[in-house]
Amino acid sequence: MAMVSHVGRVRVRNEDYVCCAEEMGLAVLTDGMGGHAGGAVASRLAAEAWMAHMQLVVAQRTVDAGELRAAVAAANQSVFDEAQRDPFLQHMGTTLAGVCVCPSSGRLLACHVGDSRIYRWRSDVLDCLTRDHSVLREQSDAGMIDPLGSGSAALRGLLTRAVGVAVCVEADVADFPLQDGDIYLLCSDGLTDMLPDAEIADVLGALGGAPRLAAEHLVDMANDRGGVDNVSVVIVSSRRAGRLGTELD
Question: Which architecture does CATH list for 2-234?
């Protein structure tokens, strides 16, 4: 596993947060919102609460979808409670994308809320395993707007679900079979708003066996394209470093 988080070229504060526990197969990424210092607080609290819950579960019992939902609930409660205590943090919230790799069962469990994404690169194909909880995605799916059209910019970043803004939140949870050579990417929209999926796939295909290099390269590319938002990535790779490609600009 490797993780990189960068403030970008425009923002003055990094409201993303990334956290990994490689020995336990756990990784989580959050992208906060809320003005003042709220976004940074929300993303940190959510990631830490999710990770703390999942570490206890992994250490004590078998992980299932219910435990990932419980971890998101713990993250939601942590953010919501803090917002109630501090008037400067009211209405803060965050996205969340988390994975638990379970080699013993040959599965990867994933959960997400908001528009941070989880991708899988397998056999030269990049698949997005999550569906954005956003106004843009809903209107695009309904055929009301072209996601690449001029009107889409105003909707970018408007979420239909977020952690911490209400007493409860519904997380999407799924599990997937693991295969040797799989590469998983968790990322904030600071990456996907700057890079098309095809370029992300090229980087994972060429550098996926060296997660740190791949993570740094993706962040650098997003910043080279403007870096208009915080950009964060976590890469979980089961590919051997000796299979690295060399065809990258």
Answer: 4-Layer Sandwich (3.60)
The amino acid occupying position 23 is E
Whole-model pTM: value is 0.91
Q: Which among 34, 29, 55 has a CA at the least distance from the CA of 112? A: 29
- Quote the CA–CA distance of 163 and 160 in Å, as a whole number: 11
Task: Give Cβ neighbours of residue 71 (< 8 Å, ≥ 6 apart).
Answer: 49, 50, 53, 54, 57, 98, 111
The DSSP element (H or E) to which 103 belongs, if any, is none
User: Number of helices (H) and strands (E), helices first, in the chain?
Assistant: 6, 11
pLDDT tens by residue, 147-161: 555 445 555 668 999
The count of residues in the chain is 249
Q: How would you classify residue 227: left for phi > 0, otherwise alpha for psi between -120 and 50, otherwise beta?
A: left
Q: What CA–CA distance (Å, rounded) separates 162 from 132?
A: 11
Q: How far from 18 is each of 24, 97, 141, 145, 151, CA to CA, in Å?
A: 15, 10, 29, 32, 31
Structure tokens at 113: 């809320």
Closest CA to 237 of 131, 129, 108, 53: 108
Q: Tokens representing 145? A: 């707007």
